[in-house]
Amino acid sequence: MGGKLSYPHTEVSEDRTYLITGGNTGIGYQTAKSIAKLGGRVVIACRSEEKAKEAVEKMQKEHQEEKKKEEKKEEPEEPEEPIAPLNVEFMILDLASFESTMKFIEAYKAKGYPLHVLICNAGFGAGPKETSADGYEMHFQVNYLSHFLMTLHLLPLLRQSAPNSRIVNVSSTVHTHGVFNLENVNGEQSYDRLKFYGNSKMYQIMNMYAFERRLKDTGISVFSVHPGYVDSEFNRGTADNKLMSFMDSLAGTLRMKRNVQDGAMTTLVAALDTAHDGKSAIYFKSCKPSNASALSRKLEHQEALWKFSVDLLKEKGHLTDELLTDLTLPEPEPTGENKPEGEAKEEDAAAATAGGDAAEGEKKTEEAKEEKKEEGGGDASEKKEAVKEEAKEEAKEEPPKEEEKKEEAKEEENKEEEKKE
Ligand SMILES: NC(=O)c1ccc[n+]([C@@H]2O[C@H](COP(=O)([O-])OP(=O)(O)OC[C@H]3O[C@@H](n4cnc5c(N)ncnc54)[C@H](OP(=O)(O)O)[C@@H]3O)[C@@H](O)[C@H]2O)c1
Question: Does ligand 1 lie within 6 Å of residue 91's CB atom?
Answer without folding.
Answer: no
